[in-house]
C-alpha cells in the first residue's frame, strides 16, 4: 500500500451552495486492488462529469436537506410557516413525500444533454442526508416508490435505476451518491435524544445496539444499490463527519466538532460491494485511506498541481439543489474552470439540480450545449491528457499534454473578441517541434521558437473570426 503525504494550501471558497467545508485529506493511499486501480485509471481519462442533487427538497426550492439540521449556520436557515418550530418543520418537510410528483422526469433527455456537453461520467443522489431514497429501498418507507408518494405509480418511479440506465446507454461511467448520515431513521437521530447538530444524536459507545442497527441499515441499503441497479462504477459517499474517531484531523475546524466515533465499517461494506461490483471506486470524502480513491474539493479549485487523483465538485448555478431564479455560470466560466482543473491533474464534476416537476431549467440545457460546442472542437486537449507540474501556468495560459503533444490553452477574457496577429505561447519546448495547430481551424500556422516561448503568426481570417469565444487551444506537436 503506497502512501503519499502532501502539504496542502488550497483554500475553500465561500459560496451559497457550500453546506460544509470539505478539506483535502493530508494523505492519499493508492489502491492496492488491481481492479480498483484499473477503474481509477479509466476514470482519470474522462475529466468531465455530471452531478445531480434531487429530492423532495426541490418541492420547496430550498437547500438540500440542510434546513433540517439544527445548527446556527447560514446553510441551515429555515423559512416558511414552520420555521420557528423545528419539530413542526421536520414533520412538514418529511410530508413533502406526499407532494413530490416529478411527472416530467425524462432521464434520457438529461443523458442526451450531458453527452452533448462532453461529459463522460455521472453521479446521482440516491439518498441525501434527509434520508429520502430516490430508489426502491425495502429498508425504509421514506422513499419515492412508497405508496404514500404520488409518483410511486409512475412507470419510472424507481428514479435512480432509470437515471443509471439512461446514462449507461450513453456510455457513461455511473456513480451513486450516498449519504452516510441519515436524519430520518431513528437509529441515527434517535427521538429519545433530539438532535443538536448534524451528528448522531446519541453516543454510539453507550448505545452500541442502536449504532449496530444503524450500521446494518446502511450496509443493507448500499448492497441494494450494488446488487439491483446494474453495473456501478463509483460509490460517492458524503457526510464526512460519519467516520472513525481516529481519522479525525484536529487541524480542520469542522472535524474538531465531531463528538463521537461514528464508524460504519466502510472496509466491510466495500468488500461486500466489490463482490458484486469488482473494482468499484469508493470515494469516502475527506476520510483519508484506501477508501478515498480520489479527493473531492467542494466549490473550489486547488491552487496547484496535485500528484494524486482528485475532482472539483462545483455547481452550474449557485445552489446544489434547484431553487427558483438561480443564477447559472456562463459557459466561459465553466470552460475556464474545466481547463484549469485538468491542467492541475483534476476532473470537474458539474452539478445541475432538477426541478420538482422532473425537468431542468432551460438555461441548464443551453449552458451544456454551449460547453459541448467547445468540447467537440477542443476535447482532445481534455480527454485522456496528463497534467505536468513542469509545464507553465502563466496568466491566462494553462497546459495539458499527451505523449508527443502539448496543448497550450488560452482562456479568453470576456472583453477579448479578436485574436492578435501574433501570439506568444509562454512555453519553450525542449525537443524540436514540428507543428503548431489551432484546434478548430485547418489554417497552417507559422511559428518561431524563442527564449520567451513560441511566437505564432495568426492568419488575418482567424484574427477576425477566432474558432470560439471562450478558450483557444494550440496543439504543439513534437516528433
UniProtKB/TrEMBL annotation:
Annotated signal sequence range: 1-19
UniProt keyword annotation of Hydrolase present: yes
Domain named Alpha-L-fucosidase C-terminal: residues: 399-476
Gene Ontology biological process terms, A to Z: fucose metabolic process; glycoside catabolic process
UniProt protein name: alpha-L-fucosidase
EC numbers on record: 3.2.1.51
Domain Glycoside hydrolase family 29 N-terminal: 16-379
Family (UniProt): Belongs to the glycosyl hydrolase 29 family.
Record's GO cellular component terms: lysosome
Organism: Phnomibacter ginsenosidimutans
InterPro entries, sorted: FUC_metazoa-typ, Fucosidase_C, GH, Glyco_hydro_29, Glyco_hydro_29_N, Glyco_hydro_b
Site (May be important for catalysis): 313
The entry's keywords: Glycosidase, Hydrolase, Signal
Domain of life: Bacteria
Entry keyword rRNA-binding: no
MF GO annotations: alpha-L-fucosidase activity
Function summary: Alpha-L-fucosidase is responsible for hydrolyzing the alpha-1,6-linked fucose joined to the reducing-end N-acetylglucosamine of the carbohydrate moieties of glycoproteins.
